[in-house]
């Protein structure tokens, strides 16, 4: 990869007790790009992301930030460089949205100066951008799933790190809020040069928003590169075991994955009538 990479993994092995999930993985996260990780449930996406954010200690190999092992870097220093939104974060009991978001500023605060204008500005902006300002005084555990997700995103934004790791940031969000969050991520990337790594399940959103796409299966990287280069029906079949066709997205031209036909009841024995969708799909005049 020609681009530089602040965040890399070197023969990274990740395991829970004696169950190895990721085995000797090498990885370079391109700086100033949006990287999206896709892959089936339980293939190790969250495990990898947690290791990149030092929430999980490698069993072998290392994650390096600017060439230094994460394990050798003080936590505050890491927290000023890397923000991580886990897949299922747990809020402290009774915490309000405003307090949750302001926790994102902790790594920046000094004991002799706990609250600065920069903190104020980062928090206000994060809440504004995520539409959580009007929820400021609400307890997080009383919010809807989507409101809560946006509060967590606001906290990650308030942390204002150069590298942002987001594990399924669009979960629980309706389609408009999904697009809003992904557009926000892209805006942070394009305008401020932030490096983003996001896990997404929606392949079409992944293809739209990723500069660099990583397809994982069973803890390994099956393919990586620009979506236009790697997203094919063969890849979708290899990674997800799903039959599909890949066509150009009518709006952006990016690859659009369309799964093959939905299940249909088998036609009655002895009847030659074509199934509804096949009939509908037949060229005009042949029905
Ligand atoms: N804390 C844990 N202790 C033990 N095993 C775990 C733990 N967390 C995850 N695993 C296991 O590790 C494997 C990878 O899990 P991981 O959460 O990384 O998958 P994922 O790719 O993020 O899946 P999903 O798409 O469902 O979020 C799974 O088999 C899971 O059961
Ligand atoms: Mg996960």
TrEMBL record:
It comes from the Bacteria. Keywords: ATP-binding, Cell membrane, Ion transport, Iron, Iron transport, Membrane, Nucleotide-binding, Transport. Residues 7-243 form the ABC transporter domain. InterPro entries: AAA+_ATPase, ABC_transporter-like_ATP-bd, ABC_transporter-like_CS, P-loop_NTPase, Siderophore_ABC-ATPase. Residues 254-287 are annotated as: Disordered. It is a peripheral membrane protein. PROSITE patterns: ABC_TRANSPORTER_1, ABC_TRANSPORTER_2. The keyword Ion transport applies. GO terms for molecular function: ATP binding. The keyword Translocase does not apply. Its main location: membrane. It is found in: Cell membrane. PANTHER family: IRON(3+)-HYDROXAMATE IMPORT ATP-BINDING PROTEIN FHUC (PTHR42771). This is ABC transporter ATP-binding protein. It comes from Streptomyces sannanensis. The lineage of its organism: Bacteria, Bacillati, Actinomycetota, Actinomycetes, Kitasatosporales.
């Amino acid at each position: 990869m020609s681009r530089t990479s602040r965040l890399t993994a070197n023969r990274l092995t990740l395991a829970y007790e004696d169950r190895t999930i990721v085995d000797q993985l090498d990885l370079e996260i391109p700086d100033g790009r949006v990287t999206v990780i896709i892959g089936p449930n339980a293939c190790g996406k969250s495990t990898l992301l947690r290791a990149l954010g030092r929430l999980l200690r490698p069993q072998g190999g290392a994650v390096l930030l600017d060439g230094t092992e994460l394990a050798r870097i003080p936590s505050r220093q890491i927290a000023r460089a890397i923000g991580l939104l886990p897949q299922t974060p747990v809020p402290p009991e009774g915490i309000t949205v405003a307090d949750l978001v302001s926790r994102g500023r902790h790594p920046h605060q000094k004991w002799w100066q706990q609250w600065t204008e920069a903190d104020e500005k980062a928090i206000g902006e994060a809440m504004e951008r995520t539409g959580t300002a009007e929820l400021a005084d609400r307890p997080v555990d009383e919010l809807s799933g989507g409101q809560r997700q946006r509060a967590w995103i606001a906290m990650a934004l308030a942390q204002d790190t150069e590298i942002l790791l987001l594990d399924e940031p669009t979960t629980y969000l309706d389609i408009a809020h999904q697009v809003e969050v992904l557009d926000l991520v892209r805006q942070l990337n394009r305008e401020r040069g932030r490096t983003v790594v996001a896990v997404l399940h929606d392949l079409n959103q992944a293809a739209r928003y990723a500069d660099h796409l990583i397809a994982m299966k069973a803890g390994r990287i099956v393919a990586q590169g620009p979506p236009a280069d790697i997203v094919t029906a063969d890849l979708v079949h290899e990674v997800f075991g799903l039959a599909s066709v890949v066509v150009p997205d009518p709006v952006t031209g990016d690859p659009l994955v369309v799964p093959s036909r939905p299940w249909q009841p088998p036609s009655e024995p002895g009847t030659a009538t074509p199934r509804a969708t096949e009939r509908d799909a037949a060229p005009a005049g042949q029905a």
